[in-house]
Amino acid sequence: MKRMIALVTACALSACGQQTVVDADTAFADHSAPHEPVATSILNAGVMAQLGVADAQAKFLFDPLYDDHFGTLEPLDEALIERIVNGEEPYDGVTAVFVSHAHGDHFSASQFNRLMAAQGEIQLVAPVQAIDRMRTDAGWDPVFATRITGISLENGEQSQPLEIAGVQIEAFRSPHTGWPDRHADVHNITYRVSAASSSGAYHRVMHFGDADPSRKHFTDHGEFLGAARTGLAIVPYWHFGTANPDALFDETFNAQEAVGMHVPVSPPEWLGKAGRSFFTGEGQTAAIPETP
């Protein structure tokens, strides 16, 4: 199932140029050929990122498989699940999969166990809360553990960098939206993925899961975020509804451009009027700009 609406909008950050979300027919036209680094929507918070140069490109998936849609989000149909689980085009050749947190609209223990069984080389990076759920699922096989990196952090902490296929993976934990009244115990992880470009600069993408947008949560990450400018921040759409979102992305996150995800089937009216770029259907893409 695909929902297509007009999504060609200008990035409002003073430091960035045009950001365009391109629909699926264009995005999937030649998925096998190397191309400029790009983020491609799956559904909900699911995103595929392709980074690197020429034959060294690597594919990564963020939050691609989930169980729950809570009546407001796009459910995964069986055909899409099978393509992701079995690594069928355009989800073939995926190097690693990242999980932001263990909520049912971002994660499915049973489907991730199926994916790990079906694709014997793929790696998984996830908070320990998600991995613990996989271990208690009937599809768990202890052999999976050799390809899994578990993240256990307190709010305000960052992980040690990890390298996968020549791409640097960094992560930090910040509160889930609703903190402290809701989801205070949820380990929400933001990933920053960096790959060298042909010019010697970098293509970086960050996926924020369900991070609460309050700036106070990112104070402890200020040095980390300031150390490397991100080309594309993939944020929950409600970040666009905060006071001065341009400053949040440009100054707090140190990101050149931003695209929204986790958009419900019926997007809120304010979002459509905000002039922002956001994903709503499988196959839409946003470029990952080059940064120093």
What does this molecule look like?
By secondary structure, this protein is an alpha/beta fold. It has a single domain, classed as 4-Layer Sandwich (Metallo-beta-lactamase, Chain A). It is 17% helix and 24% strand. It contains seven helices and 14 strands. The strands form two sheets. A seven-stranded mixed sheet has the order 6-5-4-3-2-1-13. Strands 7, 8, 9, 10, 11, 12 and 14 form a seven-stranded mixed sheet that branches. Helix 4 links the parallel strand 5 and strand 6. The longest helix has 10 residues. The radius of gyration is 17 Å and the shape is globular. The chain starts with 23 loop residues before the first helix and ends with a strand. 46% of the residues are buried. The N terminus is likely disordered.
Domains, number: 1
State the CATH topology: Metallo-beta-lactamase, Chain A
Mean pLDDT: 89
**Strand arrangement across the biggest beta sheet:** 6-5-4-3-2-1-13
Total helical segments = 7
Which outline best applies? globular
* Ends distance: 38 Å
Please report which band the strand proportion falls in: under 5%, 5-15%, 15-25%, 25-35%, 35-45% or over 45%.
15-25%
Portion of residues in helices?
A: 10-25%
Q: Which blocks of ≥5 consecutive residues have pLDDT under 50?
A: 1-18, 24-33
Could you give a short account of the major beta sheet? 7 strands, mixed
Task: State the total count of DSSP E strands.
Answer: 14
CATH class: Alpha Beta
CATH architectural label: 4-Layer Sandwich
Secondary-structure element series? HEEEHEHEHEEEEEHEHEHEE
Structural class call reads alpha/beta
Q: CATH superfamily name?
A: Ribonuclease Z/Hydroxyacylglutathione hydrolase-like
